[in-house]
Structure prediction request, 230 residues.
Amino acid sequence: MGNKNKLQRFAENLTFSNLFQYRYEEVVNGFFLKGKWKQDFFKNDHPLTLELGCGKGEYTVGLARRHPERNFIGLDIKGARMWRGLKTAQEENLKNVAFVRTRIEQSEFYFGREEVDELWITFPDPQIKAARERKRLVSPRFLKRYALFLKPDAIIHLKTDALLLYDYTLEMIKQDGHILLEANEDIYGSGMDNEITQIQTFYEKKWLEYGTPIRYLAFRLHPQFFKKQD
Prediction:
């Protein structure tokens, strides 16, 4: 994408009422919607689903279309990519969709304790080098961060093409006593036919063209992770 297109998208992003993007110093001491997304923004008490690393927002928007009885927020740092999801939500008048432009490391500044009912992590960077394990979005470091805003019974969904990340997540689930709900090494080869396969991201379509198996995990965090953290 050329710099001109990026600048145009960044400019249009500023016109969307469902995009929230702030500097670290503006949210670290209190984001005005933290703990209040349902009542103050969505104006309802529907369950809230968060997608981390939402990219173009295919999953956030796709789920919102199917579930008007739920609220959806996509979070990513790439504003030019997020523009597509914002634009689609506006064109389709989807009132149950919002986007947050920030780093995932800062997600806890935007959501209050037990505010998020469900979490999707779709095709994250697998961080292949062992030295970068802590940067994997399913590492204990990140899972503890999610526990700051997830409900204790929240389901975490992971879709990935990376066998390394799939195996690593299974190991983390076993190691820390999380509750495994489903594990599938090839969702298309297994005949799965639901929103997990029917909604596809840009990267998912790319990997499918190469014949790469798409893997899926669903799990809940161990109750120990929800004990008050300093």
Notes: Residues 37 and 226 are 21 Å apart (CA to CA).
